[in-house]
Amino acid sequence: MTDTRIAAALGLAALVALPFVLPTYFLHIVIQVLLLGLIYTAWGFMGRFGLVSLGHGAFMGVGAYTSALLWNLYGVTPWLGIPAGMALAVLLALVIGYPCFHLKIVGHYFALVTLALGQVVALLIIAGRDVTGGSLGMTPRAVGTSWLAVQFQDRTQFYFIALALWLAVLGVRYWASHGMRRAALEAIGEDETAAEAAGINVLSEKVRVFVVSAAITAAGGSVFAQYIMYLNPETVSGVGISLQIVFAAIAGGMYSALGPTVGALLTLSLNESLRVLFGTSFIGAANTIYGVLLILFIIFMPRGILGVVEQVLRRFRPPPQTAPAE
Question: Model pTM?
């Protein structure tokens, strides 16, 4: 067994044991890190191949509100509401992504389209206040501990749900980052014209990446809202959450499998620190700090925190030994 597999097995064992040793508050933070980490990983899945979206809050909001509204209005279990939210997010991604990629709208133009999409979804949620609660938000109907409603008094059950989803998303990322598919996506990220000339179906690959990223983001948004038991356009949709997704993925390191999760830990730590230090007297500080830090990371640490750590470790790694010439 290689060192990497041993480290992965030890890490998985530690994650399984975590909820039985952590205090309740820290377990609450870890659950949020896992749920937000899978959302940020979904964005990094696109960003590392040159597709920059500034509107992933739209997919997170669609997933969260679809599941919650189906439960509140029609009693549809979140086990069905979450896939419904994912399907709606996929449809939205196709409606936006296919025309953009077909017409070769790329770079900052595509980023602006997605930015507008995120704001449109947030405004629609606010406009439908009779159903969604508008800017005041809404709360999924509480029924106590129930697997049918995905509601638990004990956080341990939700921890293992979050852990399973997080590991599944890492598996999707691993699948996409190996073999011919990775080579095709990297070629598209470098030069679409050259990739198309080499026989790669650029349109199909870009749509596939965008749709998978949107579906994962919607699933993460649904489960996150189900865990928090409160939805608000500012926390699950719109420009603010979209900026947070971009910042976390870049800051943690979107080229590393665990980078976006490290970014989730960073953003949550920042939010909790500001809440403790300033309370409600410095509202909006987090988004301001995200913007400033995002600029600094792009300029000085483009590969993120884990990227820097990997570079440092590489310097101390002994050079490979070569066999003596006969």
Answer: 0.90
Containing structural domain, residue 66: 14-238
Is it the case that residue 237 has pLDDT exceeding 60?
yes
Rounded Cα–Cα distance for residues 320 and 239 (Å) = 47
Residue 20 lies in a domain: yes
Packed helices 259-278 and 238-252: angle between N→C axes, nearest 10 degrees: 120
> Does the residue 119 lie in any domain?
yes
Backbone angles phi, psi at 57, to 5 degrees: -60, -25
User: What is the C-alpha separation between 123 and 115, in angstroms, rounded?
Assistant: 13
- Give the tens place of pLDDT for each residue, 274-284: 777 766 666 66
**Would you say residue 293 lies in a domain?**
no
Task: Say what the pLDDT of residue 192 is.
Answer: 81
Q: Quick check: is 244 in a domain?
A: no
Instruction: Give the Cα separation of 38 and 167 in Å (integer).
Output: 9
Mean pLDDT of 150-163: 91
Across the chain, mean pLDDT equals 86
Count the Cβ atoms, other than its own, within 10 Å of residue 237. 32
Angle at 71 between CA 170 and CA 25, to 5 degrees: 55
Contacts of 220 (CB under 8 A, 6+ apart): 35, 36, 38, 39, 42, 60, 63, 165, 169
| Per-residue pLDDT tens digits for 180-230 | 567 777 787 777 878 888 888 888 888 999 999 999 999 999 999 999 999
Could you tell me the two tokens for 111? Answer: 């980023």
The number of distinct structural domains making up the chain is 1
- Select from 59, 84, 25, 57 the least CA-distant residue to 246: 57
Note the Cα 322 to chain centre separation in Å.
42
φ and ψ at residue 255, rounded to 5 degrees: -85, -5
Q: Give the separation between CA 249 and CA 251, rounded to whole angstroms.
A: 6
